[in-house]
Design goal:
The chain is an alpha/beta fold and 276 residues long. Helix content is 37%, strand content 15%. β1 (38-41), α2 and β2 (58-61) form a beta-alpha-beta unit. The protein binds S-adenosylmethionine. S-adenosylmethionine (SAM) binds next to loops. Pfam families: MethyltransfD12 (PF02086).
């Protein structure tokens, strides 16, 4: 396999994201090479692998509409977005004022600035909404991440501007987009046993029935002559997929439930149809 072109490896993500694969990036990058026609990511989140590889052509998708809108605004005008975010004070009081704003009454530029502001100042970069779809993560206090520099905004904007962005359910996205010669990186949230209950609160979650849909999608990707790499927690749910395709075990520091006392090494699996 041709190794990744290290000259193209430039940037880390702009956002903090629960489940970010930042620590697995070196392992995942081994599967990529520049002969792939396009890079596709149905569960984009903070897109740690995408920013690391900085591919020339990409399709990025996430069911989180505000996340995707934020990337669109970033690509359009990173300087204006940076000005808007840094103009807001980082105090706890201001955080709750910004959090209380109704996103529906904001412009897309204001929503994007609010999204980045909340992401950088909330507890552990978690994205969680209540039953009314309102963002409800508390202030991150000392853990709040500083807003990245304008250079970081510009670097990420340049990479994102080359990507086609959508906010669809993963299997609709894959059926619409996958073509022969594509590289597809899939990093779904880890399944929640009873998603029907959980989904009432959070549409960004992923359940057991989604694992079955994921399995069908992998067959679709393979049948179209594209390559896939999946990362997932070593678990009973993923077993049927592991049995079908095989897997490589890797350990990564994982921040379980966002609390420091639950940070521990977790065993993950990487599943691929790329011949090693
Ligand atoms: C584990 S995170 C991806 C993290 C990403 N690899 C990174 O490095 O930041 C999973 C993402 O899947 C998204 N998601 C959840 N359910 C989805 C669905 N049915 N279709 C598409 N995206 C979904 C979530 O909004 C979340 O951003």
């Amino acid at each position: 396999m041709t190794k990744p072109d290290v000259r193209k490896i430039k940037s880390g993500p702009l956002l903090r994201w629960a489940g970010s694969k930042q620590r697995l990036v070196p392992r995942l990058a081994e599967y990529w090479n520049t002969s792939f026609k396009r890079y596709l990511e149905p569960f984009t989140g903070s897109a740690a692998l995408f920013f690391h590889l900085d591919p020339k052509r990409a399709c990025l998708n996430d069911i989180n509409e505000q996340l995707i809108e934020c990337y669109e605004e970033l690509a359009n005008d990173p300087d204006a977005l940076h000005r808007r975010v840094t103009a807001i004070s980082s105090t706890e009081e201001k955080y709750y004022v910004i959090r209380a704003l109704d996103p529906k009454v904001l412009t897309s530029a204001e929503r994007a600035a609010r999204f980045i502001y909340l992401n950088r100042h909330c507890f552990n970069g978690i994205y969680r909404t209540n039953s009314d779809g309102k963002f409800n993560v508390p202030y991150g206090a000392a853990k709040a991440g500083a807003v990245p520099t304008i250079e970081k905004f510009r670097d990420c904007a340049r990479a994102i501007a080359r990507a086609q962005l959508t906010s669809l359910d993963f299997d609709t996205f894959l059926k619409k987009n996958v073509k022969s010669g594509d590289f597809v990186y899939l990093d779904p949230p880890y399944a929640v046993a009873n998603r029907r209950i959980f989904r009432q609160y959070d549409k960004h979650s992923f359940g057991i029935e989604d694992v079955e849909r994921l399995q069908n999608c992998l067959e679709l990707i393979d049948s179209r002559g594209a390559s896939f790499v999946v990362s997932y927690a070593l678990s009973a749910e993923i077993k049927p997929i592991v049995q079908q395709w095989g897997a490589r075990r890797v350990t990564a520091q994982r921040n379980v439930a966002g609390f420091a006392e639950h940070r521990r090494k977790a065993v993950e699996v990487i599943i691929t149809n790329i011949k090693e």
